[in-house]
UniProtKB/TrEMBL annotation:
Keyword Zinc-finger set for record: no
Amino acid composition bias (Basic residues), ranges on this chain: 46-56
Organism for this UniProt entry: Streptomyces ossamyceticus
SUPFAM superfamilies: MoeA C-terminal domain-like, MoeA N-terminal region -like, Molybdenum cofactor biosynthesis proteins
Domain annotation MoaB/Mog: ranges: 229-365
Family, per entry: Belongs to the MoeA family.
Protein name: Molybdopterin molybdenumtransferase
C-alpha cells in the first residue's frame, strides 16, 4: 500500500487495532485496514482529516521539535536546595568533596585495633564509632574497636573478632595471617577534599544524595524544576463516584501529575476547567508556568477550544498533530516567551502517548536531564501496525521479551496500567522476535513524598 492509498483510505485503525489483538497479525510490511474500518465519510470531513494528516509531524521529528523548543528557552538560573529536597534534580555545579572520605582512619570491622606483631596485651578500654580520638597504641598493644570507629594512632591493623582468641593470660592471638593495614579504611581512600565527585549535569539519584551528604553538603546547587500547570478540560468529567448520565470519571487528573513529576516537573496546579472557551483563554493567558499541559479539546469538535485559544493568544504552533497512534491530535505551541503548551488529546491512552511524545523531551531538556540511552527488546507476539503512522503500544517486559498488552485502545488504560514501557511500532507493524524501541514508563520517582524522621 502506498502512502497515497493509505491517505485515500484514511483508516483510523487504532480503535480496531485495539480489539484485533487476539487475531494473528500479518506482520510488518503487510498492514491491513482493520476489520470494521469505517466506510468513507462525507467528502468534506474526509478532506479536513486528510489536510490535518498532511500537517502532522512524523513521530521522531515531533520529539526532536519538543527538545529543540526547550533549548530555545533562556538559561534557567540555578538554585540551592537542601539535600533532602534534591531528588530527581540535576546538578548545576559539580559536586566537589568538602572533606576527605573517610575523614579519619577508621576500622572496617568489629574486632581489635592492634599495634605490631601479636600476641597483644588487650587494653581495658574500647573504641566505639562517633567518639573522640582514642589514646595512641604502643607496640604489642590491642584495644577493642567497633566498625566505623577512629583507629588509635600507630595501629598497624584491625583484627576481626572472629579471627582472634585470647589465652588464659588474657593475651590476644591472631588465628589467621594478617597483612599490614588490614581492615583499616585510611583517611581519603574514597576522595580528598576538593576532588570532583559528580560532574555538573548529574541527575540526583538517592545514592547521589547520600554521597552529597557524606561529603559534607547540606544544600546542593541544582537547576530548577520546570513548573507545569495542568488544565483538565471537559464538562463531562466527574472527580468522584460512578460514571452516570453521560458523565465519566476524570482519569487524567489523577494520573498525569505523578508522571509529570517523574519527568522532572514541579506541578504547580491542576485545574479542571470544563469546556468554557473564555475560562481556558484566561487560564492560558495568565499562566506563568514554564509549561502548560492541557487535556482534551485538541480536536475540531464544537467544544474543542485549544486551537482557537492558541490562535487568540497568537501562539506559535510548533507541532500540530503527530503521525502517531493513538494521540495524533496532540500539539505543541510556544504560548509566550519561555513558555510552551502541550495539548494532550482527551482519550486517556492518547494523552499518555502525547505525554511521552511531546512533554517528556521538553521537560527533560528544561530540567537539564540527558536523554535516556535508547534501547529495544524483541517482541514476543506480532503487533498490527498503522499503515503509515507510528504506533505506541503498552508492553510488559518479561525475561528478554516485550509482551504486547491487550486493551490498548485510545480510550483504554487497562493495558498501560500494568505496562513497563511503550513500544514504538513502525508503520506496517512488527513480527514476533522483531526488536522494537522502548520508552520506559517512569514509576520510580513518581510523586513519592519522602518522610525523614
Ligand atoms: N472528526 C474527528 N473527530 C475526532 C478525531 C478526528 O480526527 N476527527 N480524532 C479523535 C481522536 S483520535 C482523539 S484522540 C480525540 C481527541 O479529542 P480531544 O482532544 O478534543 O478530546 P475530547 O474530545 O475532549 O475527549 C475525547 C474523549 O476523551 C474523553 N476524555 C477527555 N478528558 C478526559 C479525562 N480527563 N479523563 C477521561 N476521559 C477523558 C472524553 O470524554 C472523550 O470521550 O478526538 C477524536 N475525535
Ligand atoms: O485515536 Mo486518538 O489519537 O488517539 O484516541
Amino acid at each position: 500500500m502506498t502512502a497515497q492509498d493509505a491517505d485515500e483510505l484514511d483508516v483510523d485503525v487504532e480503535e480496531a487495532l485495539a480489539v484485533a489483538n487476539d487475531r494473528p497479525a500479518r506482520g510488518p510490511g503487510a498492514p491491513r485496514p482493520a476489520d470494521g474500518t469505517p466506510a468513507d465519510g462525507p467528502p468534506t470531513a474526509h478532506r479536513a482529516k486528510k489536510d490535518a494528516h498532511h500537517r502532522a509531524t512524523p513521530w521522531p521529528e515531533a520529539r526532536a521539535v519538543a527538545e529543540r523548543a526547550a533549548r530555545s528557552c533562556g538559561r534557567r538560573s540555578p538554585l540551592s536546595v537542601t539535600v533532602e529536597d534534591a531528588l530527581g534534580l540535576v546538578l548545576a555545579a559539580p559536586l566537589t568533596a568538602l572533606t576527605d572520605l573517610p575523614s579519619f582512619d577508621t576500622s572496617a570491622m568489629d574486632g581489635w585495633a592492634v599495634a605490631g606483631p601479636g600476641p597483644w596485651a588487650v587494653r581495658e578500654d574500647g573504641v566505639l564509632a562517633g567518639h573522640a580520638e582514642p589514646e595512641r597504641l604502643t607496640d604489642g598493644e590491642a584495644v577493642r574497636i567497633a566498625t566505623g570507629a577512629r583507629v588509635p594512632l600507630d595501629t598497624t591493623a584491625v583484627l576481626r573478632s572472629e579471627h582472634g582468641r585470647t589465652d588464659e593470660q588474657g593475651r590476644l592471638h591472631a588465628t589467621r595471617d594478617m597483612a599490614h593495614g588490614q581492615d583499616i579504611r585510611s583517611r581519603g581512600q574514597e576522595c580528598r577534599s576538593g576532588d570532583q565527585l559528580l560532574p555538573l549535569g548529574t541527575l540526583l539519584t538517592p545514592a547521589a544524595l547520600g554521597l552529597a551528604a557524606a561529603a559534607g553538603y547540606d544544600t546542593v546547587t541544582v537547576l530548577p524544576r520546570p513548573r507545569v500547570e495542568l488544565l483538565v478540560l471537559g464538562d463531562e468529567l466527574l472527580t468522584e463516584g460512578l460514571p452516570r448520565e453521560g458523565l465519566i470519571r476524570d482519569a487524567l487528573g489523577p494520573m498525569l501529575p505523578s508522571w509529570l513529576r517523574a519527568l522532572g516537573a514541579e506541578v504547580t496546579a491542576v485545574r479542571r476547567l470544563g469546556d468554557a472557551a473564555d475560562t481556558l483563554y484566561e487560564a492560558v493567558r495568565s499562566s506563568t508556568a514554564d509549561l502548560i499541559v492541557t487535556t482534551g479539546g485538541t480536536a475540531a469538535g464544537p467544544v474543542d477550544h485549544v486551537h482557537p485559544t492558541l490562535r487568540r493568544i497568537d501562539a506559535e504552533l510548533l507541532v500540530d498533530g503527530v503521525k502517531v497512534r493513538p494521540g495524533h491530535p496532540m500539539l505543541l505551541a510556544r504560548s509566550k516567551e519561555n513558555q510552551h503548551l502541550v495539548g494532550l488529546p482527551g482519550n486517556p491512552l492518547a494523552a499518555v502517548s502525547g505525554l511521552f511524545t511531546l512533554a517528556e523531551p521538553l521537560l527533560r531538556t528544561l530540567a537539564g536531564r540527558v536523554a535516556p540511552e535508547r534501547y529495544g527488546m524483541p517482541l514476543r507476539e506480532a503487533v498490527h501496525g498503522h499503515p503509515y503512522d507510528t504506533r505506541l503500544i503498552p508492553v510488559a517486559l518479561r525475561g528478554d521479551d516485550a509482551v504486547p498488552l491487550h486493551y490498548n485502545g485510545p480510550a483504554m488504560l487497562r493495558g498501560v496500567a500494568t505496562a513497563d514501557a511503550l513500544a514504538v511500532v513502525p508503520p506496517g507493524g512488527a513480527s514476533p522476535g522483531q526488536e522494537l524501541e522502548l520508552l520506559d514508563l517512569p514509576w520510580a520517582t513518581a510523586g513519592i513524598q519522602v518522610c525523614f524522621t
